[in-house]
């Protein structure tokens, strides 16, 4: 049986901190935290981002779209994460929410 260390050894180890991964693209993304590189730039406001998906999420600021709607109060949000945080306020008030997957 392999030792615990051998089973959890990572192929890619960050030279600056304790982060390790077996996926090369994850290490490349992680290294941006140390280099400060922000290669993705918004064409509208010049905001910069380390990750392409963060730039994509940022576009909602300029488009004005709010595609995520609360099923209880109908308030709309730009980001799914913001909706999820908002839904917690309803849970705190004793209202229950279910997704279609949970039914």
Automatic annotation (TrEMBL):
Keyword annotations: Metal-binding, Zinc, Zinc-finger
Keyword Protein biosynthesis in annotation: no
PROSITE patterns, alphabetized: ZINC_FINGER_C2H2_1 (PS00028), ZINC_FINGER_C2H2_2 (PS50157)
Residue ranges annotated for the C2H2-type domain, each copy included: 12-39, 40-67, 68-95
GO molecular function, one term: zinc ion binding
Top-level taxonomic group: Eukaryota
Protein's UniProt name: C2H2-type domain-containing protein
Organism: Caerostris extrusa
């Amino acid at each position: 049986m392999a030792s615990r260390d051998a089973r959890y050894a990572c192929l890619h180890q960050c030279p600056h901190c304790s982060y390790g991964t077996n996926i090369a693209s994850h290490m490349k993304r992680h290294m941006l935290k140390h280099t400060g590189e922000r290669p993705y730039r918004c064409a509208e406001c010049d905001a910069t981002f380390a990750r392409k998906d963060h730039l994509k999420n940022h576009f909602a600021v300029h488009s004005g779209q709010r595609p995520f709607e609360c099923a209880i109060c109908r308030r709309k949000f730009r980001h799914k994460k913001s909706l999820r945080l908002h839904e917690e306020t309803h849970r705190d008030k004793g209202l229950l929410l279910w997704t279609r997957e949970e039914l």
